[in-house]
Design brief:
The complex is a heterodimer of chains A (1023) and B (512). Chain A is mainly beta and 1023 residues long. Chain A contains 12 helices and 56 strands. Chain A has 3 domains: 99 residues, Sandwich (Immunoglobulin-like), CATH 2.60.40; 139 residues, TonB-dependent receptor, plug domain (Ferric Hydroxamate Uptake Protein, Chain A, domain 1), CATH 2.170.130; 612 residues, TonB-dependent receptor, beta-barrel domain (Maltoporin, Chain A). In chain A, a hairpin with a 2-residue loop joins strand 26 and strand 27. Chain B has a single domain, classed as Serine Threonine Protein Phosphatase 5, Tetratricopeptide repeat (Alpha Horseshoe), CATH 1.25.40.390. Chain B has 19 helices and 10 strands. The chains are: A mainly beta (1023), B mainly alpha (512). The interface between A and B is large, with 90 and 92 residues.
């Protein structure tokens, strides 16, 4: 609160500074359809005095002379000069610049290029689109906004995300997208994923990016777009350009703030009719809900008290809390003749729905540019970021959600809470049955388990631009990404399940990456028709990490929760880990254009990587792309304004992690503190080659009916071969696997972006954006000489289920256990009267969707803006392990279906005759819970991802004094993930229930951190 | 312009271009070694059978020997189903663990005569582990395995014959008087703490165990090897027993965890029944040393006797947890360790087992000696090891009838006492049961599971090969067992010559 008060003081002070200004000219800028044009530069000619239009096309500028001239300019429009002529109000209609119809986008190496000249698809997302939803997480903010970008999240707030561009091409699940911020790679590292048996999820380095600072994001999806980034860009690149100050703009201050409330939602459907016990008999220490039907009659409960025997409803909803998120961001920009700067400070505080689960973030960013002399310009940026994660929750069988889903339905929260008793100064867990890892008290665990982390990062660059002549320019850049990352994990209290608690462990890691880069560019009009651009560059990347970890072993007591508090000092252990890698690169590209309607671009890069064997460590990637503006070459009908065809081809290579090519032995401390060492499980391969991806794409862009309708269509194909994977070996060789080059994965797909603007009036505009993407990833080849295996396993045996890529099939087949069936398809029943599970796993589905899409609706009406974003997936399958587990404990809704009277299961005996053996629901579901087939669901869904209603507060309401300094005031109401229009999973959601971000994990609906619905509001002020 | 060119030149000079010579050094980690001390390996080798004790041993051999019963409803193994994520680990852990480590040691030190003794000790241990592997599966990859290439499977007969000669050579190779020999620091030799004579007796005892396993399939070779092993000197006292210590700091006291903390196991009814009525005194004095009742939410009507729970329930009774479980306060050193670093010992080969092996060899007339006397000596050795007081032990022993009746009857009595004495060494007792079909071990209470590859009303006889082999090495597997359908768990191993179902009036006719 104190902090907010300080901000207010700052603003008030600044109001007075600004309030001293003189008279102004104001007006509105519209296009020839009458639509307001925002962000138009308004400059008083011959001075550095300038302003820009706001969201509604309004501007105001204080001029030094009433006889001067104003210049109105904006990308895509013909600039206009209008004499002031003593007027105090000037309205302007800008004409669209046909030559410049395509906007300018940021491409590889931060080079700005006209979109029309690109032979590949680039989709740019504006900073406004990113920040509109006031989502502090840049990856989730990107969700649904770019066709062919598939983002899955897990782990609740601050959890890990998977970003997949045009499908998964990697067998080794190495899909990391390269993030580049202002030209410098930004480490997305230190992510973590939980597994089925526990662990926590951490979104890692990407959490450090402040969405408020983003001016634009270019998503380079294909090989051609990313070819200039070499091996690191092989999975695609997200290029972020952050906001800068404007030389022309003078002092500006802006504030944005938001508050959100998130509540947990979408839990498994549970039955509320039967309680604790077995085979219909009540048992107060029972661990499942196979007891008698609820009757409200008092029985002796596990607490020893007489309690009414009734269902305890909505336990998870009541256990979780409302998470409050608040964010504040203040930025200051200023500019003069020689340079400009922008300084921002942001504070972000996000609460999860579990007690103490929090992410706290501070971003400080300073970016400046200065023109030293006419041929030398310097840009500098420095960012400091602190991100703290606290009490990240456990995932999987030992997650709080799992404990509740397995807990007998009559166990009451009030009896479990607070989760412990203090006995002899120590916290002792309150248990509803005998101590057992599967039946724990969530209240206790929430306080016992510690998972904290903190990253302090410095990130920045220094860039020098030298102009030798108008045609020859040199850019030199040094970038640094440097951070310290600390983690703390442990068990604060003892428990009865594992006698090695309490325990404490801590680790710290130093990460550093340096990039030195140069780029020399020559550009010349060869003659009237031809323009030639040639560039050459080099880059040296050096990255190293040092990690030190220590753990205590069992602690003396909960009072000694620190490293030296170990009961036996010999159990205190430490280990260190180093990695080091370097990539040296040279690259170049040629741009040739003809008459400004035919564009040819070719690029080449060579990398030398330290992680590959000496004879294989150099690799070359070429790309070529061509773009033609058909609408400029030929006469087009009136209703076609823009028609572009494009095509491209590229080849990209990828190296491997450090230390995969030499056999070495590590030392460890084993039992009785003896030094141990052993033969590694993986056989090294000194013949590793780089992976090679070859991609091609063709596309068309159309704008019709004066911009009412627009299409951008892409067809692409990407072949990835020589994949560096761990190939499973016959274990009797002494090794479980070895690194090898293997396989060919082919991804083919289409992307279609459609924009429709049915209404474009002065005060009313309606835009519809449709993104459609279809991708099929297929494993074409898999077999090598060493390996007669025909499939690659992404997920090994989680709850009996595997996710595989089989040669000749689509990637991501879900293999599990089906019912054993007779020739005519009937389920086989055994002598016990129970369905028989087939002996071998078989394909029960595939995780790849038929298509994914999003629908964006945008309405501007007077001062109101409404944005809605719907996300969807059609097809794809998911296995609900959540439901299968709850079925065996008698908690799943389905287990109460027939009132639990004994019944004869559907099916026939092995000899084809009818079964007469009746079974109880408990017997039946105990068996069926192990049969995967029963819990496979269609993963299709459509959800309202984001909706916001914004209102531009008319400045007049503030009164004259204030409105002369406030340039913009805006209030928005925002809702995220409010509801699903349709889905098929049993209460849970199909798109955010994976236990990790690994490729195969999306095949599982399994006890994630609760998914939330959020509502909030944001305010933005500009001064 | 000139200034700009100078500027450019300076920048390019500082830009280190095209130097990749230090890449190899960069790609080698700095915190590793390239040659491993034998002591760093031997202590890990001893841990191999224990590392995954629950999944590899408790859920299979321990249940099939009916020392323990399962009390978790969803567990598949009690009714003979195979679970790759459980005992499938044993294959992986042996081949990629001790075998790969041992092969690397032979590579490092095989040509250096100062390492003869330590390599022979490792060799003895490896032979023991090889026998456990082949007794689990039958034919397995053996010659040339663990060297980076796939090799053919060898028959169990080939493996047994080779193991007997390897053990003979290894025992003979140990030179107890050669001071120039490299020796493990004594704390690294967790089995015998540097006592080479004990190592030799352990090697010979293992040879006796291998020999007796062949009693029915190749009696001549068995007799020859058994007589040679005994002549060379087998274990002489409980101090010679092979017991693997479990460290109290950590989480390796599996029986304690499984029975007590995880509530996964209880004593098997089969075994607890053998703790009553064997001797005229009634109760076996070891019963309460081994077992007790957990102070729990459930209790039995009569807790004055030790009662276990039947093996092989489909749906467990609600009070399954009420049955007898491990006694951590019984003073039995196998369970409670030395009171300091060692929390428990896991038996690998008891001294009493050696005595019973000799008793059986004597019964068969393969070695000199009084079978009945050795039988009594075996029981006494077990009583001593468990810590039964002398009078209770002698009362029990005096109450035994001694070996009487036909050879089959005598063998049954002998194996029954061996079975009791071998508790909790499930691996060995399951092997004895498969070979001799003694003592009487029941089928799963609710029958063999329909999902098991064991015929109805038939005893499980082996473990099937892991998925890894079916997926990646099926070409090398025995042709009659190279598919999941044919790789059945009711196929008898080479040394298992008779079907338990042929037992008549409690007796086989196959053992002599």
């Amino acid at each position: 609160m104190n902090q907010k008060f300080n901000y207010v003081l700052l603003f008030v002070a600044l109001l007075f500074i600004q309030g001293a200004m003189a008279q102004t000219i104001s007006g509105t800028v519209t296009d020839n359809y009458g639509t307001p044009v925002p962000s138009v530069n308004v400059i008083e000619k011959g001075t550095t005095n300038g302003s820009t239009t706001d969201f509604d096309g309004n501007y105001s500028i204080t001029v030094s002379s009433t006889s001067g001239t104003l210049i109105f300019s904006s990308l895509g429009f013909v600039a206009q000069e209008i004499p002031v002529g003593g007027k105090s109000s000037i309205n302007v209609v800008l004409q669209e610049d046909v030559e410049q119809l395509g906007e300018v986008v940021v491409t590889a190496l931060g080079i700005k290029r006209e979109k029309k000249a690109l032979g590949y698809s680039v989709q740019e997302v504006s900073g406004e689109d990113i920040s509109a939803g006031a989502d502090g997480n840049v990856t989730t903010a990107l969700q649904g906004k770019v066709a062919g970008v598939n983002i899955t999240t897990t782990g609740g707030i601050g959890g890990n995300s998977r970003i997949e561009l045009r499908g998964n091409s990697s067998l080794a699940d190495n899909n990391d997208v390269l993030w580049v911020v202002d030209g410098i790679p930004f480490s997305s590292g230190d992510t973590s994923d939980g597994g089925i048996w526990g662990g926590t999820s951490n979104g890692g380095g990407l959490l450090d990016i402040n969405p408020e600072d983003i001016a634009s994001m270019s998503v380079l999806k294909g090989g051609s777009a990313a070819a200039l980034y070499g091996s690191r860009g092989a999975n695609g690149v997200v290029v972020i350009t952050t906001k800068t100050g404007s030389k022309a703009q003078g002092l500006g201050i802006s504030y944005s703030g938001s508050v959100f409330a998130s509540t947990s939602a979408y839990f498994l459907d549970l039955q509320e009719e039967f309680g604790q016990g077995s085979e219909g008999v009540y048992d107060e220490f029972g661990t499942s809900s196979w007891g008698p039907e609820f009757d409200g009659v008092e029985r002796v409960a596990w607490t020893g008290e007489l309690l009414p025997y009734a269902a305890e409803k909505n336990r998870l909803t009541n256990f979780t809390k409302t998470g409050v998120t608040s964010r504040h961001s203040v930025s200051l920009t200023n500019g003069g003749e020689k340079g400009s700067y922008r300084a921002t400070i942001s504070k972000d505080y996000t609460e999860g729905v579990y007690e103490n689960h929090e992410i706290k973030k501070t971003n400080f960013d300073l970016k400046a540019t200065y023109e030293i002399n006419p041929w030398l310009n310097v840009d500098a940026k420095v960012s400091y970021i602190k991100t703290k994660g606290q009490q990240r929750p456990e995932i999987g069988y030992y997650s709080l959600v799992s404990y509740f889903n397995a807990m007998p339905m009559n166990i009451r929260l009030e009896d479990l809470s607070p989760g412990y008793e203090i006995i002899g100064g120590e916290h002792v867990e309150t248990l509803y049955t005998t101590a057992n890892a599967n039946y724990r008290n969530p209240y206790f665990l929430q306080e016992q388990i510690v998972n904290n982390d903190e990253r302090n990062r410095f990130f920045g660059n220094l860039t020098t631009n030298i102009s030798f002549s108008e045609n020859l320019k040199l850019r030199l850049r040094y970038g640094l990404d440097n951070y310290r990352y600390e983690t703390e994990s442990g068990y604060r209290y003892a428990d009865n399940v594992n006698d090695q608690k309490p325990s404490y462990s801590t680790a710290e890691k130093f990460y550093s990456e340096e990039n030195m880069e140069m780029l020399l560019t020559y550009n010349k009009d060869l003659n009237e028709d031809f323009n030639l651009g040639v560039s050459a560059g080099a880059n040296k990347m050096y990255r190293n990490t040092d990690k030190l970890s220590a753990s205590s072993g069992k602690l003396i007591s909960e009072e000694t929760y620190f490293l030296s508090g170990a009961e036996d000092s010999s159990t205190i252990s430490a280990s260190e880990e180093f990695t080091e890698r370097e990539i040296q690169s040279v690259y170049g590209f040629v741009d040739l254009s003809y008459k400004d309607y035919l564009f040819l671009n070719a690029t080449a890069r060579n990398d030398w990587s330290s992680t590959l064997p000496e004879n294989n460590n150099s690799y070359f990637y070429p790309s070529v792309n061509l773009s033609g503006l058909v609408s400029e070459m030929f006469m087009m009908p009136d209703w076609i304004q823009y028609f572009k065809l494009r095509g491209s081809w590229a080849q990209v290579g990828k190296d491997t992690d450090p230390y995969n090519t030499t056999q070495v032995y590590t030392l460890g401390s084993g039992r009785f503190n003896l030094t141990t060492s052993s033969e590694p499980d993986l056989l090294v391969n000194s013949d590793l080659k780089p992976e090679i991806s070859t991609s091609s794409e063709i596309g068309a862009e159309l704008r019709l009916f004066k911009g009412i309708l627009g299409f951008d269509f892409t067809y692409y194909s990407e072949d990835t071969k020589n994949q560096i994977v761990i190939v499973d070996l016959d274990q009797s060789t002494g090794y479980t696997g070895k690194y090898d080059n293997l396989g060919l994965v082919v991804n083919r797909g289409i992307e279609l972006m459609t924009t429709i603007t049915p209404i474009r009036r002065d005060d009313f505009r309606f835009d519809i954006t449709l993104n459609y993407a279809k991708n099929k990833g297929e494993v074409k080849e898999l077999v090598t000489a060493e390996d007669d295996d025909e499939f690659y396993t992404f997920i090994t045996d989680n709850g009996g289920v595997q996710v595989r890529g089989t040669e000749g099939e689509l990637m991501g087949d879900i293999y599990g256990y089906a019912y054993e069936r007779s020739d005519d398809g009937q389920i086989i029943i055994d002598d016990d009267g129970l369905p028989v599970r087939a002996a071998e796993r078989q394909v029960l589905g595939n995780i790849q969707p038929d298509f994914t899409g999003s629908i964006g609706l945008n309405v501007n009406y007077k001062n109101f803006t409404v944005n809605a974003l719907l996300g969807m997936q059609e097809g794809g399958d998911i296995y609900s392990l959540t439901e299968a587990s709850a079925a065996s404990s008698g908690n799943a809704l389905r287990t109460a279906a027939n009132g639990r009277v004994d019944f004869i299961a559907d099916g026939v005996l092995a000899d084809g005759s009818a079964s007469s053996q009746s079974v109880s629901a408990q017997e039946y579901w105990s068996r069926v819970s192990g049969i995967t087939e029963e819990f496979i669901y269609d993963a299709s869904y459509m959800k309202l991802r984001e909706i916001s209603i914004g209102y531009n507060v008319p400045l007049s309401i503030f009164g004259d004094k204030v409105s002369s300094v406030i340039k913009e005031a805006r209030i928005s109401l925002i809702g995220r993930d409010l509801f699903y229009l349709y889905k098929n999973t049993p209460g849970t959601v199909p798109d955010a229930s994976a236990f990790s971000t690994s490729y195969g994990a999306r095949a599982f609906d399994f006890s994630p951190v609760p998914v939330t619905r959020s509502v909030g509001c944001s305010v933005n002020f500009k001064f | 312009m000139k200034k700009r060119v100078i500027y450019l030149g300076m920048v390019l000079l500082t830009f280190a271009v095209g130097c990749t010579e230090d890449f190899e050094e960069m790609n080698t980690p700095s915190n590793v070694i390239t040659k491993v001390e034998p002591s760093y390996v031997i202590n890990r080798m001893f841990q191999n059978p224990l590392t995954n004790y629950q999944r590899n041993i408790n859920l299979y051999p321990d249940f099939y020997a009916q020392y323990w019963s399962n009390i978790v409803s969803s567990f598949e193994s009690p009714r003979y189903e195979y679970v790759d994520g459980w005992i499938g680990n044993q294959w992986n852990e042996f081949y990629t663990g001790p075998l790969a480590d041992y092969n690397a040691q032979l590579g490092f030190y095989g040509d250096d005569p100062t390492y003869t003794n330590v390599l022979a000790q490792m060799e003895i241990w490896m032979c023991a582990e090889w026998q456990r592997m082949t007794d689990t599966y039958g034919d397995i990859p053996y010659f040339g395995a663990g060297t980076g290439e796939s090799v053919p499977y060898n028959t169990q007969e080939e493996i047994y014959n080779d193991l007997i000669s390897r053990l003979t050579e290894a025992v003979n190779a140990i030179d107890t008087d050669d001071a120039t020999q490299y020796a493990f620091p004594t704390n690294y030799d967790l089995l015998y703490y540097g006592d080479l004579d004990k190592w030799k007796r352990f090697g010979n005892s293992l040879r006796l165990r291998l020999a007796m396993r062949m009693s029915n399939v190749d009696p001549d070779a068995a007799q020859e090897a058994a007589a040679a092993a005994v002549a060379d000197g087998v274990m002489e006292s409980n101090a010679d027993g092979a017991h693997i210590p479990l460290w109290s700091s950590g989480w390796y006291d599996y029986h304690h965890q499984m029975a007590w903390n995880w509530d996964n196991t209880r004593a098997s009814r089969t075994f607890t029944d053998y703790l009553y009525g064997q001797s005229s005194v009634g109760e076996d004095p070891r019963a309460w040393k081994w077992f007790t009742y957990k102070d729990d939410s459930y209790s039995l009507d009569d807790e004055s006797v030790i009662t276990g729970i039947e093996n092989g329930y489909n749906t467990l009774p609600a009070d399954a947890r009420a049955y007898a479980t491990i006694n951590l306060d019984g003073g039995y050193v196998g369970f409670v360790g030395d009171g300091a670093d060692i929390l428990m010992y896991m038996p690998y080969m008891f001294y009493s087992e050696t005595v019973f092996l000799k008793a059986e060899a004597a019964l068969r007339g393969w070695i000199a000696g009084d079978a009945n006397g050795l039988y009594i000596e075996g029981v006494q050795a077990s009583m001593d090891y468990v810590g039964v007081e002398a009078t209770a032990a002698s009362d029990y022993i005096n109450g035994l009838s001694g070996l009487t009746g036909s050879n089959e009857e005598q063998l049954k009595q002998l194996i029954t006492q061996k079975y009791i004495a071998n508790f909790p060494n499930g691996s060995e007792s399951w092997a004895d049961f498969r070979r001799t079909d003694y003592p009487d071990i029941s089928l799963p209470l609710d029958g063999v599971s329909g999902s098991a590859s064991v015929a109805a009303d038939t005893w499980v006889k082996r473990i099937r090969y892991p998925d890894n082999q079916h997926n990646l090495n099926s070409a090398s597997m025995p042709t009659s067992q190279n598919t999941i359908d044919t790789d059945r768990m009711d196929i008898r191993l080479w040394w298992d010559t008779a079907d338990t179902k042929d037992k008549s009036s409690g007796l086989m006719n196959s053992n002599f």
